[in-house]
Amino acid sequence: MTERINAITATAIGVAFSPAGDFSIQADIPAGSSAVINVEGQADAAAPWVSLGGISASTIPPMRRFAKCPNVRLTLSGNSDGKTIKAWSGE
C-alpha cells in the first residue's frame, strides 16, 4: 500500500493519484480522535473534487473500497488534537 497521508496538522491534502482499477483506502486514526480522512474524486482534471466517502475513528474496520475513479485524493480534516493520522491506498 502507498502512504497518502501522514500528518499531525488539523487539515491536510494529499497528492492526487489515478488508480488503475478499484481501490481501497485504509486509515490509522487513534480512538477518540475527531479526525476524518475524506476520499475525494473527480471525473476529469477540469471537474470539481467531490466526496466519495470518509473514514473516522468510529469506522470499523478502518478501511473502505471504492470503484475506479480517474483522479482521487485524500484529505484530512478535524484533527484539532494534533494526533498522528495516517492513510494508505492500495489496488
UniProtKB/TrEMBL annotation:
<protein>
    <submittedName>
        <fullName>Uncharacterized protein</fullName>
    </submittedName>
</protein>
